[in-house]
């Protein structure tokens, strides 16, 4: 009697159908660009805050400095609202795109996936595992979507995920220092850290755009190659 074939790490649910990720990919890339734009606006607000606080430290206190401080505070608040709104909208569309490419990747090669499909969304919201599960899911989708026989590549995904995690850490430090700042020197230093944080967020968003565009193209090319084990693109 022959021994049974070993089961794959995760057997895909029955009936996944290929659907083009192009539309969601473009929408996600555009929204990530909007996130970068709001971060850039926030960098400008951070610079104003830093300059005003520096003037106060140097003893330049007058009506002009007070007006500039009010203007900087208003811009800083507006930038925060813009960043939050853009981030929420982008997160919703991004998760829709990621779900689409995850289902497609199951059709390409179900054995490539080490996490169940539900983790595609849930992994981002569960503490601790959200530090590595999303990267693994994107990487599994990437490898399943690559041309047949191509060696697995993780450099781009690893770069994006490393910068993303680093940006979260820098953001936490920046907001903590800003909340605790009471004197002008502390505000100046907090604004400097916040500037670095927003700049780091731009890098993370740009790398995310590259990952989205490249993974979307990989899936489109694999469909067009005609070498599919499952149903046609719907």
Question: Could you list some keywords that capture this structure?
Answer:
234 residues; mainly alpha; 0% strand; elongated; 71% helix
Label the structural class.
Answer: mainly alpha
Number of domains: 1
Shape, per Cα inertia axes: elongated
What kind of sheet is the major sheet?
A: none
Order of SSEs: HHHHHH
Share of helix among residues? over 70%
Please give the alpha-carbon distance between the first and last residues: 42 Å
Structure description:
- With 234 residues, the chain is mostly helical.
- The protein has one domain.
- The protein has six helices and no strands.
- The protein is elongated, with a radius of gyration of 23 Å.
- Mean pLDDT is 86; it is low at 5-13 and 230-234.
In a few lines, what is going on in this structure?
The chain is mostly helical and 234 residues long.
Walk me through the topology.
Blueprint: H1 22-57, H2 63-108, H3 119-122, H4 133-145, H5 155-180, H6 184-225
Helix pairs in contact: 1-2, 1-6, 2-4, 2-6, 5-6
